[in-house]
Amino acid sequence: MNGTGTAAANDRVFAALANSVRREVLRLLRDGGPQPVQALAAHFDMARPSLSEHLKVLRDAGLVSEQRSGRQRIYRLEAAPLAEVQDWLHPYERFWRDRLKGLGELLDRMPDDDAS
Amino acid sequence: MNGTGTAAANDRVFAALANSVRREVLRLLRDGGPQPVQALAAHFDMARPSLSEHLKVLRDAGLVSEQRSGRQRIYRLEAAPLAEVQDWLHPYERFWRDRLKGLGELLDRMPDDDAS
DNA sequence: ACGATAGGTAGGAGTTTCCCTACGCGTCAA
DNA sequence: TTGACGCGTAGGGAAACTCCTACCTATCGT
């Protein structure tokens, strides 16, 4: 419907990223590959059930997936939602590109012609 | 400290983006240029003070700036934090590029050699 | 000076987040 | 089968979020 996923889906992804614990989990999965919850939990001070809830938030956002292996749950990074974030970001790129070129400054600072 | 802003700053930016009203405000500023609050408020059903609070969240995240002009406040998109989001995203890019190439599949599905 | 306009702030209600401590369920080892 | 291990869920409490209705300040037009 939207250019980049539904509004609710974007809400879920951005909200999931709006927490340093969850961003760190993603980084650990990115740099360390798929891991069981234990291995992830070792990096945090919090009680393990709290981390479980963070993992649920990440799962609901589609940012990680789990695969059962014996009594372990192996979590893996799923980057598709991040690709959508990048797509969402695209239309804004010209704003910082323009800034760097020092050009858009004047153009952007005063196009008050059509705003009522 | 971090590669891309402090954790708290990223929290603020991602949290600001985790709301469809605020994302729509950014889109309006991107497509319509700098605008007063009135012009933005016209696009939403909510009471105007509620939108004011959304604008405060965006301001605190550094995503918009205001410039007073008479009794109006002209809001402008500030894309720098979005550029930092893109930077934050970069280390994850290979994950969806690999997926597209259909290569990383096998590589990523089982590098369980160093995870304790 | 007076009223209308633009927009922020105060405070409150309902919901959600984030952490905790129990506890339940499935799996492995003895 | 019995116990330990790996993880999730339940439920609760503190704080934050999101909306509202007043209300306040500053500016413009008359």
Automatic annotation (TrEMBL), chains A, B:
Q: Give the signal peptide as a residue range, or say none if absent.
A: none
Query: Boundaries of each HTH arsR-type domain copy?
Result: 2-97
Record InterPro entries: ArsR-like_HTH (IPR011991), HTH_ArsR_DNA-bd_dom (IPR001845), WH-like_DNA-bd_sf (IPR036388), WH_DNA-bd_sf (IPR036390)
Q: Which domain of life is it from?
A: Bacteria
Protein name as it appears in the record: Metalloregulator ArsR/SmtB family transcription factor
Q: What is the lineage of its organism?
A: Bacteria, Bacillati, Actinomycetota, Actinomycetes, Kitasatosporales
